[in-house]
Each structure stands twice: as structure tokens, then as C-alpha cells.
Design a protein that fits this description.
- This protein is of the alpha+beta class and about 200 residues long.
- The protein has 3 domains: about 1-40; about 45-140, no CATH class; about 150-190, no CATH class.
- Helices cover about 40% and strands about 25% of the residues.
- The strands form 2 sheets. The protein has a 4-stranded antiparallel sheet with strand order 4-5-6-7, with no helix packed on it. It has a 3-stranded mixed sheet with strand order 1-2-3.
- Helix 3 packs across helix 4 (about 65-80).
- The radius of gyration is 25 Å and the shape is extended.
- It starts with a helix and ends in a 5-residue tail after the last strand.
- About 15% of the residues are buried.
- The mean pLDDT is about 85.
Length: about 200
């Protein structure tokens, strides 16, 4: 079989080379696109104060699924209700509250040292909003729930060592173990009962 593959590659090397170059070019373009879109999502987003408590508008503006949007708006509503206090408070002078929000977003984007370190730390999403009633600007730093995980590890039992690979979706996790890399010798499924 190896000889057949080798002879095919020798006879059709130009075709194989052109396919390989196309795949490499496609992979490079995909990586560039993903990095560019990821950077634009991570940039601070200025939202209207009332939109920060609306799940649909938050989902659209922050490019998150409805589950994450519900969690985000619930936590922001706790802040609006005064149940959660801010980590940092500071004062600036500006002509309007909207200009202050825009200026703050630009300062976060530029990682301006004038801002408190909490405001410029890297998170999955950053929301800047102007509260007209209280004449203040809120900055929400958001780390999203990561629902999908790929895991790797080892298991040792009865003096034998097995390599394992697993996948977790939400609270469910499945793992398979192998010694020889060809067949599965063991498997497990687990459910997370409590998270904190």
C-alpha cells in the first residue's frame, strides 16, 4: 500500500503540490479571518444603558448566544439594581455623558494607563454604557462561559497506564482511554452535579 501511494505521488506530484498549496493558502486565510474577527469582538462596545438589560439586544451587540446573553443581562441588572457594587470608581470631566462613554471606550481600546487596571484588563467582552439618570459611565468586563472543552490526560490502574482524551459539553463529559492508540480499552461519562 505504501508503495502504491509513493508511486501515485511521484506520477502526480504537480497535482499533489497544487492541492497542498491550496490547502495551506486556505488555512492561512482562515486563521487571518478568525484572528481579525476575534479582535473586533474583543474591542469595547458602547451600548445604550437600557439595552444592557435586554437579552436580544445584548446578544446581537456582543455576538454571544442567548444563554450567555441571559447571564450577562442578569448580572448587569444586579448592578443596575444596586445589588452589586463596582470594583472601581473614578471621576472625569467631559462635555456630555455620551462623549465620556465614547472616550472611555477609546481609552480602553488604546489601553490608556490613566484608566484603572481593572478597566483595561483583557476579557472576552467589554461593554461601556452611559447612565443618563445618575450621570455616570459603567464599564462591564465580561468573561463568557466556555461550554465546549477538549481534555487530555492519563489513567493508571492495575499497574497499567492509559492515555485518555475527552470532550465536555456543558455539564456532560465523556472520556476514552487507550494503551496502544488503536483500540479503546476504557471509557467514562460524567455529569457535573454542582459548579461554583
Amino acid at each position: 500500500m505504501f508503495v502504491q501511494i509513493k508511486s501515485f505521488l511521484q506520477e502526480h506530484w504537480k497535482f499533489c503540490l497544487s492541492i497542498s498549496l491550496c490547502i495551506v493558502f486556505f488555512a492561512i486565510c482562515l486563521i487571518i479571518y478568525m484572528r481579525t474577527s476575534e479582535k473586533s469582538i474583543e474591542q469595547p462596545k458602547t451600548m445604550k444603558y437600557e439595552d444592557t438589560a435586554n437579552t436580544d439586544k445584548a446578544s446581537h451587540a456582543l455576538h454571544v448566544d442567548s444563554g450567555n446573553a441571559r447571564n450577562i443581562t442578569r448580572e448587569i441588572q444586579y448592578i443596575h439594581d444596586g445589588k452589586t457594587s463596582p470594583d472601581v470608581t473614578y471621576y472625569v470631566t467631559a462635555p456630555t455623558i455620551e462623549k465620556t462613554a465614547e472616550q472611555t471606550a477609546e481609552q480602553i481600546k488604546a489601553e490608556d494607563a490613566i484608566l484603572p487596571p481593572v478597566a483595561i484588563e483583557k476579557t472576552d467582552r467589554t461593554v461601556v454604557t452611559a447612565d443618563q439618570k445618575k450621570q455616570k459611565v459603567d464599564v462591564y468586563k465580561i468573561n463568557l462561559r466556555k461550554d465546549h472543552r477538549i481534555k487530555a490526560g492519563i489513567l493508571q490502574t492495575d499497574g497499567k497506564t492509559y492515555g485518555g482524551i475527552g470532550y465536555q459539553a456543558g455539564r456532560w463529559e465523556g472520556t476514552v482511554y487507550t494503551r496502544d492508540g488503536r483500540s479503546i480499552q476504557a471509557a467514562s461519562v460524567m455529569y457535573t452535579v454542582k459548579q461554583w
